Amino acid sequence: MTGAVEVGARPAATHDLDTIVELAVAARASLEHVRGGPVLLATDRGAGDERGYLQAAMVDDDAQVLVGTLDDIVVGYLLAVLIQTPGGPLLAEIVELYVQPEARRVGVGARLLAPTISWAASRGCDGIDAVARPGDRATKNFFESHGLVARAIIAHRSLDGVPPASP
Predict the structure, then answer these.
(1) 3-state class of 143 per DSSP?
(2) Model-level pTM?
(3) Which of 26, 29, 97, 151 lies most in the core, judged by the most C-beta atoms within 10 Å?
(4) How many domains does the chain have?
(5) Averaged over 80-100, what is the pLDDT?
(6) Could you tell me the CA-to-CA distances from 79 to 65, 96, 162 in Å, in that order?
(7) Which tens digits make up the pLDDT trace of 109-143?
(8) CA-CA distance, 88 to 150, in Å (whole number)?
């Protein structure tokens, strides 16, 4: 008889860094050939130095790094940061959330999101933001099922080799 798989989340520890970096690289690779992915990668704060970026976040008082687990095996991670808007509310931004494809749909993302919402509330945040790529219904639906709703749509057009339109 086999037992159920235990789904969990916990703060990332130093010994998790190699695994989190591998997951971050996989997350970025998954964006290379999807709509909106290349521009997201071009604006990615940690691209090219995932280790340094994540290691710094792990010791930043204004950031939270969690790992999601299945039977204590790290299969996902979440990075959130505090954002003080100019003259406005304090927000928590989910900068990175990734779960290995074979570990999805069993609750790992939910286990990562719940403590992040609590963390944001405990820090006095007025809200929490996260990004879903255009056409990524699974991510959009995941966030919406946890109370996050779209507040903006960012449109983009590449101007590579295209002359400006005439007025």
Answers:
(1) helix
(2) 0.86
(3) 97
(4) 1
(5) 93
(6) 5, 5, 36
(7) 999 999 999 999 999 999 999 988 877 888 889 99
(8) 19
